[in-house]
Amino acid sequence: MLNFSEFxxxxxxxxxxxxxxxxxxxxxxFVVPYWIGGTIWENLKLxxxxxxxxxxx
Length: 57
What we know:
- By secondary structure, the chain is an all-alpha fold.
- The protein has one helix spanning about 5-55.
């Protein structure tokens, strides 16, 4: 049987572990794809503008 100090340490560990788990899931499903998609979008816009500038000369 756990005493209060061990139990509170276990609860704190599980709380931090759970926060880390959900943060990892959030980063992998929302933040990273948004970042990659934005980078690709910006590169396409820059290439399009460079192509327009080259044609205009």
